Amino acid sequence: MSHSVVDLIGVTKVFGAETALADITLSIKDGEFLTLLGPSGCGKTTALRIIAGFEPCDQGEIRIDGRPMAGIPPESRPVNTVFQSYALFPHMNVFENVAYGLRIAGAGKTEIERKVADALKLVRLTDMSDRMPARLSGGQQQRVAIARAIVNNPRVLLLDEPLSALDHRLRKQMQKELKELQRTLGITFVLVTHDQEEAFTMSDRVVVMNHGRIEQAGTPREIYEEPANLYVARFVGDINVLDGVIAEAGSGGYRATVEGVTVFLKTARPFAVGESVHVMLRPEDFRVEVMRDLQDYPELAEKFSKVLLTGTVDRTFYKGATYDVEISLDDGKHILASQFFDEDAETLYFHPGDRVAVGWFEGWEVVLPHEG
Ligand code: ATP
Question: Which of 31, 125, 138, 342 is the most buried (most CB within 10 A)?
């Protein structure tokens, strides 16, 4: 990965009273798998359509390989799009669907045969080249759409929610296949989805969008572990937001009161004494112990000398590998803790009404300024 393939520079798009994109600047790197992630209406499809050339922008510009794209129609851009609806030609078999673009471009018979065969092999449809689209499963139709988009070796492949019509299992499988295909081809992929798990599974970099703006761009791990703000934190997975007040600056962090309890918060962000903060913890960051056990077993009490918060179990949910525990803290705040089953099973058995102590792995908290 080196230079950028696609540059969006100050791109703004307005539909009537609706600002679909508000001054978006983003560089998409060569060979990158980048995902635009956000809720319905945040502007992701509009961004894709502007890159593809289906839509002009009102302000700003798109460059591909450094070349301004203003006035260049979709078919003349080194970009192909895979749509959610597949958009296969129903009256053409698989081979002809994939060959279509090459024929239009005036490619010769042998070149077409070779390229289509290569593309079909990549999506594992070699045996289906005579089939009509109506006789293919959803996943197979999607593979044809992908083969058709990669057959003329575009610089960039744009994918607009390409897996949303597939059932859960097939979707998972296609996610892996798409990622694999992208690695094999080395083509830059730009995917649009509202599904966080899908974005994380496939992408090198995720761009979280909200109301036509970019909230954060980063690796899946950065987005999950270091969300830039409350919006991003809440959009990607479950998160507990605790309220705190900074009491005193220390080395590598601050002493603070969080939900009425004094704790040390590790953070590199600057905060003022007296400032209100959000302290965010994923359910899996919490460790929960039943207080009855703490009294019964002195070694557990010892282990939990750093007990932070106390509360009462409301409900539990069996999740397979983990166990979700809903807890009301003593100050009334509700939290969700996810616990793994381990050999210490007895201490991980929670029942509604159990009094519990809740701690977390020091430093796993994300501390952000209080919003609103
Ligand atoms: P979805 O996941 O639902 O497709 P999205 O994040 O892709 O959503 P866009 O389709 O980019 O969002 O739409 C962004 C905003 O622009 C929305 O408020 C939408 O209603 C509006 N919009 C998009 N296209 C048009 C159009 N052709 N005419 C008018 N408004 C539009």
Answer: 125
Same domain, 197 and 344: no
Q: What is the DSSP letter of 66?
A: T
d(CA 105, CA 157): 18
pLDDT digits (tens, 9 = 90+) for 140-165: 898 899 999 999 889 999 999 988 87
Measured CA to CA in angstroms, residue 155 lies from 24, 56, 152, 184 at distances of: 21, 20, 9, 14
Characterise 259 by phi-psi region: left (phi > 0), alpha (psi -120 to 50), beta (else): left
Q: Which of 19, 24, 44, 160 to mutate to test the pocket of ligand 1 (most atoms within 8 A of CB)?
A: 44
Atom of ligand 1 nearest to the CA of 192: 7
| Boundary residue ending a domain (181, 202, 235) | 235
Contact 13, 22 (CB under 8 A): no
pTM listed for this prediction: 0.86
| pLDDT for 86 | 74
- Residue 279 tokens, joined: 């302290």
3-state secondary structure of 160: strand
Q: Each residue of 8-41: pLDDT tens digit?
A: 999 999 999 999 999 999 999 999 999 999 999 9
* Closest protein CA for atom 27 of ligand 1: 15
Please tell me the distance from the alpha carbon of residue 317 to that of residue 338, in angstroms, as a whole number. 9
* Tokens matching residue 211: 């109301």
Chain centroid offset of residue 285 CA: 20
Binned at pLDDT 50, 70 and 90, residue 1 comes out as very low
For 198, phi then psi, to 5°, come to: -60, -45
**Minimal-distance CA residue to ligand 1 atom 25:** 15
Size of the chain, expressed as the number of residues it contains: 372
Other CB atoms within 10 Å distance of the CB of residue 6: 25
What residue numbers bound the domain in which 19 lies?
4-235
Give the type of residue at 80: N
Q: Which of 214, 235, 256 is the last residue of a domain?
A: 235
327 and 347 inside one domain: yes
Q: Which two tokens stand for residue 63?
A: 């460059």
Indicate the pairing of strand 309-318 with strand 322-329: antiparallel
Distance 20 CA to ligand 1 centre (A): 6
